[in-house]
Amino acid sequence: MKNIIIATISLVILISCKSNQEKNKPQEPNGPKPSSSQLILEMDSNNDGKISKTEAKGPLSNDFKNIDSNNDGVLTLEELNHAEKNHNHKPPQQENTSKNLSNDIDRSVKVLPVNKDYFIAENIIDGIQTKMIELNGVETLCYVIKTHSQATEHPMGPWCPQHIDDGIEKAGIWFKDDKVYDVSGHFIANLDEFYSDNQWKLYREDGTINVTNTEEGCLAAAKPDVEEKYNNYCVECLPEYFKDQVTTFVIPATPKYLKTTQSFGRGGIGIAFNGVNYDPPAPTHAILAAHTIAPLDDHGGHVNPHGGYHYHAATGSTKEIAQNDTHAPLIGYAIDGFGIFGLLDKNGNKPTDLDECGGHFDNILGYHYHAGEPGENQVLKCLHGLPGYTEVKE
Questions:
Q1: Radius of gyration, alpha carbons of the chain
Q2: Which has the minimum average pLDDT: 20-34, 155-169, 228-242?
Q3: In the chain, where are the structural domains located?
Q4: CA neighbor of 287 nearest in space, from 205, 182, 212
Q5: pLDDT higher at 72 or 292
Q6: What Å distances lie between residue 220 and 216, 290, 360, CA to CA?
Q7: pLDDT exceeds 90 at position 36
Q8: Around Cβ 365, how many Cβ atoms within 10 Å?
Q9: Is the Cβ–Cβ distance between 294 and 306 less than 8 Å?
C-alpha cells in the first residue's frame, strides 16, 4: 500500500512538472496562417472592406508599405492575395543605406520617368511591381523588376573557340586598350604575342583549346581568384547552368539627380529591356593575371555564377527605342532610373559633352546616359542619380 501511495505521489509530481514546463515553454504558432479574407474580417474595424495603416496589426503592419502596391494607404483584398501568393512581401534590401543622400538631390534638373512598358513582358517574372522604398534616406517610389537574365532577341554565345583553326563565327570578342578583337582560334594561339608574355598558352599540342566545358570548371575559373588548375584556360560558362537564378532590380520610377556622383556597388548598374543586367567593368586584371580569358559574345555579354548572363558592352543587339529626332536610341535604364542611350546618333556622331559618368543634359530628355564604347569594358562609368540596387537569388 505504501509503495502504491509513493508511486501515485511521484506520478502527480511528474505530471505537475511537465505541465509547468509546457506552460513556461514559448508558445509556437498554431494552425495555418490566416487567409486574406480572414485578415480583413479581423482587422477591418470600420467595415469598408479594406485594412488601413492604423488597422493593420502584427507582421502585416510591418509589411504594410511593401504590400500597398498603389501607395493609397489601404490594403485591398487583391493586394493581400498578391502578397500571399508570392510569399515574399519585401523586396531585397539596399546594401548601403548608411549614406543619406537626401540633401544631395537637385530638383531643378529635368528628369524623365522610367517607362515600364518598354520592357519585354515575357522576360519579366510576375510583372513589374511598384513599391515605396527608402533609398539612402529618401522615400522613393520604385519599380521592382524580377528576371532570369536570359536574352531573347539574340542567341547567347558563342564565347570560346574549340580549336586554333576555328574562325570568328565560332567565338566571341575581347577587348584591350578600348579596342574590340575577335576571339578566333588564331587569336587564342597568339595571345603570347598579344600580351607580350610567353606564359600564355591556352591550347594543347593537337591544337584543341583549354575551355571550361563543365559547370564545375565554370565555378572554379569564372571568379577573380581563378583556381590554379584553370590557369591558361578560355572561360566559358553556359546560361543553362544558372537559368533558375532570379535577379531583382529596384529602380526609382522617376530618377532623382544628385549633385554628387556615386560609384557602383555590388550587382548590376542597369537593365536592358530584355531583363538582362548591365554589369560594372569585368575584373580583367585578375582574369589576365591567371592567364585566362573570359570572352564576351558578339552581343557584349557572358555568364558568371553570381549574375548569370549579363552585359559588359552595348553592341546594338538588344531592343532599342528610337527617338523622334536624330538622337541615339534608348537601350535600357540605369539602376538610378536615368535612361541609357546608345553611343551614336542616327548620323553616326558621338556626343562630345559627356560628364564623368557618361551622361549629359538636353532640353527634351533631361539628364541621361550614353553607353560607352564596346571596347571600354564599361557601359557606364558612375551614377549621377539616387541609386537603386539589385539582388541575385541563386
A1: 28
A2: 20-34
A3: 36-86, 102-152+246-280+313-393, 168-243+283-300
A4: 212
A5: 292
A6: 6, 12, 40
A7: no
A8: 18
A9: no
Mean pLDDT (the chain, rounded) = 86
Cα–Cα distance list, 155 to 125, 159, 172, 232, 302 (Å):
20, 11, 12, 27, 11
CB within 8 A of 144, min separation 6: which ones? Answer: 91, 128, 129, 130, 131, 248, 249, 250
Residue 1 confidence (pLDDT):
41
Cα–Cα distance list, 168 to 181, 187, 236, 383 (Å)? 10, 9, 16, 35
**Cis omega before residue 158 (within 30°)?**
yes
The percent of residues above 90 in pLDDT, for the chain, comes to 68
CB neighbour class for 94 (10 Å; exposed up to 12, middle 13-18, buried from 19): middle
- β-partners of residue 133 are 140
- Number of alpha helices (DSSP H) and beta strands (DSSP E) in the chain: 9, 18
Chain centroid to Cα 354, Å, comes to 26
Nearest to 330 by CA among 80, 113, 74, 21: 113
Joined together, the cell numbers standing for residue 176 give 584591350
DSSP SS3 for 124? strand
Residue 75: count of CB within 10 angstroms of its CB = 26
